[in-house]
Amino acid sequence: MDEVENVSTTPQTEWLPKKNPWIISIPLMASVFMFALDETISNVALPYMAGSFSCSHSEATWVITFYLIASGIIIPAVDFFCKLLGRNNFFLLSIIVFTLSSFMCGISNSLIMMVLSRFLQGLGGGAILPLTQSIMLESFPREKRPQAMALFGLGIVFAPIIGPAVGGWITENWSWPYIYYINIPIGFVTLALAQNLLEEPPYAKKQKGVKIDYIGFSLLSIWLICLQIVLDKGNDADWFGSTWICWLTFVSCLAGILFVISQFKLKNPLTDLRVLKDRNFFFGTIIQTVLVASMMASSAMLPSMLQRMMGYTSFLSGISMIPRGGGCLLATVITAAFIGKFGEKRFVFVGLIILGIGGLAFGEINLQISLLNIAIPNFLFGLGMVMAMVPLIDMSCRTLKNEQLTNASGIQNLIKNVGAAIGTSLVTTCVSRFSQTHQYMMVGKLSDLNPAFVERFNSYVGMFMQSMDPASASEKAAGLLYNQLLQQSALWAYIDTFRIFAIAAFMIIPLLLFLHKKKHVL
Q1: Are 226 and 313 within one domain?
Q2: What b-and-e string marks burial along 238-265, b requiring 16 or more CB atoms within 10 Å of the CB?
Q3: Which long-range contacts (CB under 8 A, 24 or more apart) does 138-144 make?
Q4: Do residues 289 and 416 make contact, with C-beta atoms less than 8 angstroms apart?
Q5: Is residue 278 part of a domain?
Q6: In this prediction, what percent of the chain has a pLDDT beyond 70?
Q7: What is the Cα 444 distance to its own chain's centre?
Q8: Which of 3, 382, 417, 505 is the most exposed place for a label (fewest CB within 10 A)?
């Protein structure tokens, strides 16, 4: 009886690996960098792929879409596969699948083969992010977790930023298959290091009698597949003006609602959604989702603007994102060095303010800007993003037990993935609709009642009359002015969209009040 009492009153000790956690982080961060890089590295190579596969650019975008769908499906199922196979075994399997499917992407000779290969790559890579997050959180003592998350945050933010630049350089100097071949040597080295360095805690080992939640997995797949197709193709199909978009949206919403209900009702659910009841985790995830949506949406929008409006090549537009990476690096150093002195909430607050200022700075651009005018707001974006994101990752999981981290990381990354997809789709729609709005507002200025228009029109007519008749010169001048109107309306659409990023950053600041410092007692 005494022995039983002694056992029950002894405080539970927190599991820590025997090896140095910073050494353990090497294969973990290498795998994260591979996965995060491949989220954006394909973007600039799509025109080349379309040419190789004799398909349209719209069809080539399925290369990106199916990667996101696959990673979204596997992320919430991470906890289940860890119980089924053991966490270390599942992590190693994910690296193997990601590496082999990267090779298949490189040798693909048709769009169908490429899309299937990218789907497999997404299945392999999707699990890497939540697994790495949970392993790093539990491998470091609680007082060292902010520094660990600084390193993790650098990987998930920095890699997608440099993806377009790396992809553009490789595509222009070699060919597009090499953007996937570079994963092969990194993958094998990562696999060897992970096999020798990773340790498995007792609660992450393979469990007996694990049953798959077929209902939950089916509903999850239907929800995410329909949602991703709607988000990717909705703008081209005029959103709810299209019947098939309406039906897919209905099916996606219904499947999503039924998935959530099933996870609370079933005895052995695919994911344990009860973790969302934790206040820190819930509000921390919401703030992170807005940040990830802003990061991915702006990363997709800025290179597009530079190529469309200013004639930049894919490589130069990718280079324009490098200052954002510099901001990320500086923020990582600052966060790791000073977060213990100034507090996590203050870091997040300052990061959101800097991010908002960066969005407002983007709202001051024009068509005569240089790369320096893009570099400064981009640097602020990277600086604010990491300063806000890194403390949030630790704060959102601080009140959870170690054995909850794998499931929580899966749910959190699923929500962030959905947020990124929605954010990217929304900015595409915003640019399109805002451009139409500004065009409608500005076209009234092209009138003989506007002295500025008359002066500019007569100036152009006089210039063109030096090489053509008056009627042709007038037609040419009118066409030139209308093209300038289209350019200006598109520019204002981009400006308005960048300002939305600033508004979003400022609006989520009050949510910091819901995060508390209370730590879970083991």
Answers
A1: no
A2: ebeebeebeebbebbeebbebbbebbee
A3: 138/15, 138/16, 138/201, 138/402, 138/405, 139/16, 139/17, 139/21, 139/24, 139/25, 140/21, 141/14, 141/16, 142/14, 142/398, 142/519, 144/21
A4: yes
A5: no
A6: 96
A7: 40
A8: 3
Segment (H or E) for 284? helix 279-310
Q: 21, 144 in Cβ contact below 8 A?
A: yes
Answer with the residue of higher pLDDT: 332 or 193: 193
- For residue range 487-499, list pLDDT tens digits in order: 888 888 888 888 8
Task: Give the CATH number for residue 305.
Answer: 1.20.1250
Residue 9 covered by a domain: no
Domain check: are 363 and 435 in the same one? yes
Percentage above 90 pLDDT, the chain: 14
pLDDT digits (tens, 9 = 90+) for 281-298: 899 899 999 988 888 788
C-alpha–C-alpha distance, residues 156 and 70, integer Å:
18
For residue 43, give Cα distances in angstroms to 37, 179, 229, 394.
11, 11, 17, 31
Give pLDDT, residue 199.
82
3 occurs within a structural domain: no
Q: What is the mean pLDDT of residues 508-518?
A: 82
358 and 453 fall within a common domain: yes
Residue 522: predicted pLDDT: 43
d(CA 75, CA 416): 11
The answer on 223 and 199 residing in a single domain is: no
55 plus 173 within the same structural domain: yes
pLDDT at 1 > cutoff 60? no
Full-model pTM = 0.78
Question: CA-to-CA distance for 62 and 516, rounded, in angstroms?
Answer: 42
Q: What is the DSSP letter of 15?
A: P
Q: Give the structural domain span for 473.
A: 291-522
SS (HEC) of 385-446: HHHHHHHHHHHHHCCCCHHHHHHHHHHHHHHHHHHHHHHHHHHHHHHHHHHHHHHHHHHHHC
CA dist., res. 483 & res. 475, Å (int): 12
Rg (CA), the chain: 25
Distance CA 236, CA 234 (A): 6
Residues 100 and 88 in one domain: yes
- Token code pair at residue 437: 């709005």
Predicted pLDDT at 58: 67
Query: Does residue 96 belong to any structural domain of this protein?
Result: yes
pLDDT score, position 477: 83
